[in-house]
Amino acid sequence: LNAFLYRTGEASTKFMIVYASNQPDQFDWAINDRIDEMVEFGIPGYDERIKMIIQYIDMYLSNPAKGGKPIIVDDDIDEDIIKSVAEDTEGFSGREISKLAIAWQAAAYGTENATINKELFLTVLKEMKHSKKQKRSWLTQGEIDR
Q1: What is the rounded average pLDDT for all residues in the chain?
Q2: Distance CA 93, CA 144 (A)
């Protein structure tokens, strides 16, 4: 901490430090004093969740990373289902939505033809919501209020 505080004691055009935290209130006062600008990234809204779900279906299912087998996305996963999932993921962080898409991918790879249909899509969502609820139950009220 002392070396960090020494290096950040004066303004510099040679480097920039970017902090990312789910708990910015945990930063030491001396660190907070050196933060010139803060930007909060809130929980994605409905329209943002729709865009993220579409992006992640493409990224993790239809066109997975190099070497990944493409997943067959059934036609029953349509715009209405995506809108429904966007509604059901209210309160999810961007990371949680990404993890949901990765869970869809894993579930699809577990099928005979690497296929995901509406039923499997919604089952995985239900399981993720249950997991989120369980994790939340482990938190103290102070942690929840953050």
Answers
A1: 88
A2: 14
